[in-house]
Amino acid sequence: MLATILVAVVAAIHLYILVLEMLLWNTPTGRKAFNLSEDFARETRVLAANQGLYNGFLAAGLLWGLWLGESGVPVTLFFLTCVLIAGVFGAITASRKILYVQALPALVALIALLVR
């Protein structure tokens, strides 16, 4: 039960990131979330939308794994691992904040799924 809740939280985080990157990037909410200037947000909105789509795929994979139930554990493990790797890479290359917002929740969910 705990693992399911944690995986759902990670999926929700990525759905929220999808909304921020695809729909709100060029708004005050999106700019504040990512600490962006108005000019930079406007110039990079297409790139951000692309990133948002990828985050949506991660969320979809996690939700698919949950939907499959016990037989979806390998799917869920795969997508949590993808989220963890993306979070670590993002923390190294973009912002340390990503380590806590993306990678840490994925790691906790991954551990919970493995020890259940």
Kindly describe this structure:
With 116 residues, this protein is an all-alpha fold. Helix content is 84%, strand content 0%. It has six helices and no strands. α1 packs antiparallel against α6. The longest helix is centred in the middle third of the chain and has 23 residues, at 45-67. The protein is elongated. It starts with a helix and ends with a helix. 24% of the residues are buried. The mean pLDDT is 96.
Q: Structural class of the helix and strand makeup?
A: mainly alpha
Average predicted confidence as pLDDT = 96
State the helix count: 6
Q: Determine Rg (CA atoms, Å).
A: 15 Å
**H/E element string?**
HHHHHH
N-end to C-end Cα span = 9 Å
Oligomer: single chain
Which bin fits the share of residues in helices?
Answer: over 70%
Structure summary, number of beta strands: 0
Shape: elongated
Largest sheet: none
Strand residue percentage: under 5%
Query: Which consecutive residue ranges, at least 5 long each, have pLDDT under 50?
Result: none
